[in-house]
Amino acid sequence: MALNDIASELLLLHGLTGAAYVSKLKEIAARREFHPLVDNPCIFTVGGEGDADYPYLLGAAKKAVEHGYQVYIMPNPHGQRTADFIFVRRNVYKLFDLKTISGKNIVEAQLLSSVGQSNRALLNMTSDYNPSMLVRGIKRYFERNDEALEVLIFKGKKAISVTRDLTLSADFYRIFMRRYVK
User: Fold this and answer.
1) CA pseudo-torsion sign 85, 88, 89, 93
2) Are 5 and 74 in contact (CB under 8 A)?
3) SS3 helix, strand, coil % of the chain, rounded to 5?
4) pTM for the whole thing?
């Protein structure tokens, strides 16, 4: 099967929920086109090393492996909005859209651009970013996107998971700042 078939299957995810969604994620990850990287057998790819985004994808994938995930880098079918990764840990499959934060870009806008690709976003923080702006941007992302389930943040050696439930907590800002700044 061709890479376009994987892209088609990724698009099918938009209409699925619950067990059918998870089953489709597992089916995509099990496809023969995926092969492990020689230097990191926990990262699987279908090619695309020549794509301009590939270095960002690979960098984030390596951080995910450090946090215990097995990572499937999705193909980049130009012209279609699909997520970037399937992360697997303890037999739990999650689909993430990558947002690399390398400057002073507004995180909220970056997060909102992932709407329609996945209900989970990965923020790979490669530069210093104002923590107060970050926490406000994440909160507004959850307020504006009813489908959002999680924002996973990689900052240095840390992995911080922010869920919708946490953002509804009265202590969200304090809890987030303690996790992020510490």
Assistant:
1) positive
2) no
3) 40, 25, 35
4) 0.92
